[in-house]
Amino acid sequence: MPEGDSVYRAAKQLDQGLSGQVLTRSDFRVPSLATKDLAGATVVETVPRGKHLLTRFDNALTLHTHLKMEGAWVVQPVGRRWRKPWHTARVVLRTATTEAIGFSVLVDLVRTDHEDRLVGHLGPDLLGPDWDPDLAVANLRADPDSTLGDALLDQRHLAGVGNVFKSEICFVAGIDPRTPVRRVDDLEPVVAIAKHQLEENKDRPFRWTTGDRRPGNKYWVYGRKGPCVRCGTPIQRADLGPPGQERPTYWCPRCQPPA
Questions:
Q1: Catalytic residue from among 9, 94, 218, 247
Q2: Known catalytic membership, residue 3
Q3: Per-residue pLDDT tens digits for 226-250
Q4: Is 180 annotated as catalytic?
Q5: For the chain, how big is the Rg over CA atoms in Å?
Q6: Domains of the chain
Q7: Which of 11, 24, 124, 142 has its CB 3.0 to 4.6 Å from that of 48, i.e. a possible disulfide?
Q8: Would you call 166 a catalytic residue per the annotation?
């Protein structure tokens, strides 16, 4: 599942592969943008914003993409065979040497000065230049009735945490993810753990939080079917979240006692 660290790496790949180059072709494979043509535009940069990607051009337009649950960008030399099914491509950007294909992504095209209409609702970005831990804590505090797990996933509070990091952050903080925010006395360490975990993983090809990259040992609790690596208590799992948005959540009942 794409989370803030994955989006950061995708932005870096797009930025390094396309920036400064002139598009020789663009292909939007969504009905609302089917007639749009960016050929002739120069790619200025691609930047991440939480789980969103903003690719800016010198014609005052921005391509906004979101990876959803299964989306991905692939950047490769022109002419190379695509690694994913052609029918899942939603946008293609091509220069004289490079081709970038967005598979199963959400796509929008907006004026660059209107980007806030798409990402202005987001809280401070854990991996962005706007990161503000005090604002992130205040945003969480303003949602006292949400569980900590749900509040961390709400991108309006802080941008970049996904379902894997949600469970891992709560474990390292020693807090049951079902705990209401109002019962968490000190949110500053929680936010600091979130920042640390995403920073540590933003440049890694594979995500891990334990320091142990062996299969089955990358995460403290997420996806674990056996006992807790710290205390040996069986890991608990439940689908938690607002109706229709439930996500698998993992925790250790001993290391993360209910509040």
A1: 247
A2: yes
A3: 899 999 999 999 999 989 889 999 9
A4: no
A5: 20
A6: 4-119 (3.20.190.10), 133-251 (1.10.8.50)
A7: 11
A8: no
